[in-house]
Design brief:
2 domains, alpha+beta, 10-stranded mixed beta sheet, 366 residues, 22% strand, elongated, 11 helices
């Protein structure tokens, strides 16, 4: 029963850590170190735009790579939120619709098209991620999604490797801007640098130019900062796990106190045979640790079937649903084991000390 109580606590802690690990993996692995993201100065979101007239100036900055047509590899973009219906009667959720320039796909080399084709320029067409196609209605290849002023045909499905793009729908910038009245401004601009040195120079040049009033940051930095989406989950989960841990510690202590009372004569015999008090403390602590570790194995085992399951939460930056996968990592397993060992140690110290302090004659007479 003690092991089961510890297992329940470990299960809660592991679930929280799986959530956090999934969020961190999705955001930290997002972006490309050669992509520089340009935003309006003072903002941390692509939802706040800047004047469209600044796009030609940004295109001509030195250090930008060339696309397959020999033009600067850049992508002016807008993101807007659209409501999409969940499958199996799950209600509506807001997803990010990203309108991107002609080089928007090329600037993201790690994204792969797995079915159909990319959206056409100037067309009411979209490509959706595999996660979106799996979770939402009317988002399979050939379907039509209804948002804005009408239907958008799904022409392709892409795979983004578990990054933030797996929560998005992609379409043509001009169509998105027209449908959502964004023609006079740009939400963000992506610049693809030639190399890492050029990327650092681009970032600095954009931020230092007072005429532009913009800020540059590495795309990887932008997504790494969004891990704060998991802060509320982490805090609430830790509070629940800590509260349950207190109960588990008392359960472990109660079990060990019962073991001490039940084995009082055996403890006295060990003392007569010459075993020291420290040996007795060590033996009872070892037993408490075994109970805790057994509970940890049970708790981790109960959560293994949930590894890789996709769930969604609200992104605190874009306010759309962010889809990620629960992940059991070596760090999660190590935390669970350490958490269980801590409960076992705390719950076993007092009973073990009480066992070692018993007088031999009093223990023999019990």
């Amino acid at each position: 029963m003690t092991s089961c109580g510890i297992a329940a606590t470990v299960t809660t802690a592991v679930f929280v850590m799986m959530l956090v690990a999934g969020i961190n993996k999705a955001f930290v692995s997002s972006g490309d170190p050669l992509n520089v993201l340009v935003l309006r100065r003072g903002t941390s979101s692509e939802l706040n735009g800047f004047a469209k007239e600044k796009v030609p100036v940004l295109r001509e900055l030195p250090g930008i790579a060339k696309d397959s047509h020999g033009e600067p590899l850049v992508s002016p973009e807008w993101i807007v939120l659209v409501d999409v219906i969940r499958k199996n009667g799950g209600g509506e959720n807001s997803l990010v619709l990203r309108g991107m320039g002609p080089d928007g796909v090329e600037i993201r080399p790690h994204t792969k098209l797995i079915a159909g084709r990319w959206f056409g320029p100037g067309q009411r067409e979209v490509a959706v991620s595999r996660s979106v196609a799996t979770r939402y209605r009317d988002s399979n290849l050939g379907d039509s999604l209804d948002f804005g002023n009408g239907a958008w045909k799904v022409t392709g499905i892409f795979e983004a490797g578990g990054t933030a793009a797996d929560s998005e729908i992609w379409g043509d910038l001009s169509q998105v801007a027209q449908q959502f009245n964004r023609q006079k401004s740009i939400g963000s601009m992506y610049l693809r640098a030639v190399d890492a040195t050029s990327a650092a120079a681009l970032k600095q040049r954009v931020s230092d130019d007072q005429r532009l009033g913009l800020q540059g940051m590495f795309e990887t930095e932008y997504y790494a900062e969004q891990t704060k989406s998991g802060d509320s989950i982490r805090v609430v989960g830790y509070i629940v796990a800590f509260t349950m841990a207190i109960g588990s510690i008392f359960a472990a202590a109660n079990t060990m106190y019962a073991a001490v009372a039940y084995r009082s004569r055996e403890i006295a015999i060990l003392r007569v045979l010459g075993f020291s008090r420290s040996s007795i403390v060590t033996s009872f602590l070892f037993e408490s640790l075994l109970l805790a570790l057994f509970g940890a194995f049970i708790g981790i085992g109960l959560m293994l079937p949930f590894n890789g399951i996709a769930i969604g939460i609200e992104d605190q930056v874009s306010f759309g649903e962010f889809i990620f996968k629960l992940r059991i990592t070596p760090q999660v397993v190590a935390f669970a084991m350490s958490f269980a060992v801590s409960m076992g140690l705390i719950g076993g110290v007092a009973p073990a000390s009480a066992a070692a302090q018993r007088q031999i004659l009093a223990a023999l007479s019990d």
